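Fresh eyes needed here. Kindly weigh in on this sequence plus structure tokens:
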Amino acid sequence: MSNDPTTPVPASVPAATPAAAPTPDSPFRAEPGDRDLAPQFVLPLVVRIERAAPPPRTDALETAARAVLVMLGDERSTGDGAWARAMRDWQDARIRKVVRRARGAEWRRAEALPGITVTGKNAEVRVFPPVPLDGWPKDLARLQVSGTDLDDPEPPADADPAVPVLWMNPDLDMSAGKAMAQAGHGAQLAWWELSDGERSAWREAGFPLSVRTADPARWGGLTTGGLPVVRDAGFTEIAPGSCTVVADHPALRR
């Protein structure tokens, strides 16, 4: 349940032409650049999956996306906060997220490490400040990256258009961990595109959002409509350059 580097595309770059506008020193650059030479960091996320009661897939995706936003908006992540340096180092390089799973004593050990636990309807996801790509804490490094599939017992309800929606590509088959990381990328892109006031309003509301699979007939329009689009680097599961998520925040609609 992992995610290798992706190439998110900001709203100002049309999804059909990902290499047209990014600057030479940008996390959105499609080709290797200076950011690839910088020390690489990763944002760890751990989802709690107990054998007897795994969370529904959509709930896990939404909780992971909110966990990324909670980390971005936490006072420890900005200014002189305890996690600010790690957050800057992480965002100065490629944007990487890795999702691992834990249960029982594994989850309790993960909760003992500095981080933030975010709960959904049933899902629990703990997000940690970024760590070096090859420098994971041992209690996180030993957790499994793959091997668990999550399903929705019932189809999720239609998304509320008044709430931000992270639209997943209907043509891609991603594992739960991969999809959770991609949803986190989409939420992060939306956060970056918002003004300070819009960010504050979203944070104060508790970061409401939905994750839904787009109607195939709408997907093309979503990717070319000026909204933030995530493109995957193609290191795991899917082809390079694949559009995985469109971040449809009401404040970003043209």
Q: What stands out?
A: The first strand starts at residue 6 and ends at 9.
